[in-house]
Design brief:
With 245 residues, the chain is mainly β. It is 2% helix and 52% strand. It is globular.
Length: 245
């Protein structure tokens, strides 16, 4: 029996995206972000667990990780991911104490993902916050943030290749207006894509990828045409390339 090997190691080729995902392309990495908001009415909201329009830290902050399960969740491990004061990717794992709380020693200028990293699942929602402002939430039962929010790290360029938006409703005639929003460093949020969808999924294939420079914020927002409850999910994906590649 010969050694098992992929075709990329035998003089042939594999799809570029697969090679990136396998870490075979230097200075390139893949990104897939997904968000879900179960309760959107006729007010604009970001597609994330916390509800409302997402608030970004104005400086690098230590994050307090708190479980609604309090002391019942002592020992739960949570990994917080984001960007540091210099906009570089950073993460820290914390363990909840006897009150169901832990504070990071690492400071975060952005928080865009957190998940339960140990073998013990929490019994309540977990918030990642500072000074009363929540920057991420792990909804009970998910064990992972569901936030269509992300920021391009320093010295990188992101090429957005695909996005999706899905609307769930049980009321006829209601539609969602969904926007993919980008904010360059020092700028304001601008609409990159705006669509209406009724009880369906829309796919946005960027055949020519949308180029986003370092420190650019990217998020998805939605609003309903009627004063009623709706659920919306959104994803975006692409290739992150180091600028000195």
């Amino acid at each position: 029996m010969g050694n098992v090997s992929s075709i990329s190691r035998t003089g042939k080729t594999e799809p570029f995206e697969l090679q990136v995902a396998r870490g075979q392309i230097s200075y390139h990495s893949s990104l897939f972000k997904y968000g879900y908001n179960p309760l959107i009415i006729n007010v604009n909201e970001t597609i994330w667990d916390g509800g409302g329009i997402y608030t970004y830290p104005s400086s690098a902050l230590a994050m307090t990780v708190t479980s609604a399960g309090a002391g019942t969740d002592e020992g739960v491990k949570v990994l917080v991911m984001g960007l540091d004061a210099d906009w570089n990717e950073v993460s820290q794992e914390v363990t909840l104490d006897g009150s169901g709380v832990a504070t990071t020693t690492q400071t975060f200028r952005r928080v865009y993902r957190a998940y339960v990293s140990g073998s013990q699942a929490p019994t309540g929602n977990i918030t990642i916050a500072n000074g009363g402002t929540t920057y991420a939430q792990i909804t009970n039962g998910e064990n992972q943030t569901l936030m269509a929010v992300w920021t391009v790290p320093a010295n990188h360029t992101f090429y957005l290749t695909r996005g999706t938006a899905t609307h769930g409703t049980d009321t006829a005639g209601a539609y969602m207006t969904i926007r993919f929003m980008t904010r360059p460093s020092g700028g304001v949020f601008r609409t990159a894509t705006k669509v209406d969808v009724t009880g369906a999924e829309l796919v946005f294939p960027f055949d020519v990828p949308l180029k986003l420079e370092e420190k650019t914020d990217l998020e998805v927002r939605a609003i309903c045409s009627k004063n009623q409850n709706n659920a919306v999910s959104a994803t975006f994906e692409g290739i992150l390339v180091r600028n000195d590649a």
